[in-house]
């Protein structure tokens, strides 16, 4: 995009059209392999065994249950490629899927920290977004501070994830149906608002 404030294709993290897939465990991934182990006490000593290897003399009169636990036998690879991109709302709920899968336009202001001078900018963006039927949120590593300053939904996010998405701090993204339509540094806010009005 010619209005992009970051180099094209910096990482999969900022490709929101792929983000939902990247946050899911890949098809064909291998889960961890575990066995259930039991710990019992027999004549004052702890004895450990799994479900396939109960002692030949096992009985409730000889063995007293202590605990059971899952023992990792083989490490799998059932983890999503992207684990750190999360949008946490004011009630500490993970709202990522709800936000990214909702239809329509969405503006996200990514900020690594929070600068009180951005309050006026956020107010103007919020008003323009509302006039153009567009949701608007702030994603920041300093959510508590931002929530004291602005009257829009503020999501707590991981600092590393924000730095990846917003090489220029802060950065505005315009998405439509989870596909990036544009991104701008806050200094180019006028361009972002002009695009939003189209």
Summary tags:
alpha/beta; Glutaredoxin; five-stranded mixed β-sheet; three-stranded antiparallel β-sheet
Number of helices: 6
Helix percent reads 10-25%
Largest sheet: 5 strands, mixed
| CATH homologous superfamily assignment of the largest domain | Glutaredoxin
Shape: elongated
- Kindly name the structural category: alpha/beta
Query: How would you spell out the order of helices and strands?
Result: HEEEHEHEHEHEEH
Please state the average pLDDT score.
Answer: 81
Number of strands: 8
Summary of the model, kept short:
By secondary structure, this protein is of the alpha/beta class. It is built from 6 helices and 8 strands, in the order αβββαβαβαβαββα.
Can you give a write-up of this model?
The chain has two domains: 130 residues, Glutaredoxin (3-Layer(aba) Sandwich); 42 residues, no CATH class. Helices cover 25% and strands 28% of the residues. The chain contains six helices and eight strands. α3 links the parallel β4 and β5. 23% of the residues are buried.
Topology of this structure?
Elements: H1 16-22, E1 33-42, E2 45-50, E3 64-74, H2 96-101, E4 105-111, H3 119-131, E5 135-140, H4 143-149, E6 154-156, H5 159-165, E7 171-176, E8 179-185, H6 189-197
Parallel strand pairs: 4-5, 5-6
Antiparallel strand pairs: 1-2, 1-3, 4-7, 7-8
